[in-house]
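Slide 14.
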Amino acid sequence: MGIGFTGQKYSLAYYAREDRDPVKIWTQMNEFMLQFGEEYVFKIRDGIEIDVSSDGLTKMYQSEKEKREKKGDFQPSSTDGAWSENHLYLGLSTGVTAQFANSLVKLPEVFKFKLDLAHIYSTAKVFEFIELQAFFKMGAMLFNPYYGRLQKFGEASYSESAYDKKFNSIDLSKVPPVIEWFNYFSPSWVERFGGKQFVMSAPVFHAEKVEETGGVILILQEEPFDFMNNEHMNKRKQVEEYLNLPELHKQYQK
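Slide 15: predicted structure.
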């Protein structure tokens, strides 16, 4: 099955504080992706098809851990990615510590996907919009993050964007720089935004409680969000003001 890509790239990511089991995450997400076809299973690394059974992944991670320990890394870590045959990307970062100046900093656990709008809109599409919602919710249930989002590529490096102005000035473990197309907030984040009833009443296209985690999903609009579209930006601003995000940014300055 071929896909003609649109160039409209989107990234879906979840962030957590506690370590997650990468084998469990990879295995369960592949089980979910099988409903769309074998070609959407995440199984290609460095151009080579790998064994994505639970045993195969366990052996791979154990081998990589041993290699890192032999190299004398200060902490065994894992940052791994895999592609499907149709160019969907899965990324997992677990147990990663980075060195800044003279200190070691434990980075958030990250579960990430990359997709193209062709996966939704082409004749060879994978997801209807409702299936993209299910995909986003599945990731939230599987990874149980404190924050999740689905955004268009490019805004973080765009000089006039909200990201460029806020990304380095606020505590991203407490609040997001902006409201994205899709958003997931953990129970503690929901309380920070005003409580479940208030958040569920936000002026968005779709609001949904995730019973399995206690968090809330907010989907800004049905049309894919484009930060170069003034109507989309005005809709985002409306929701950000409702959730009092500008004041939260002041409260959670670095």
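Speaker note: The chain has a mean pLDDT of 88.
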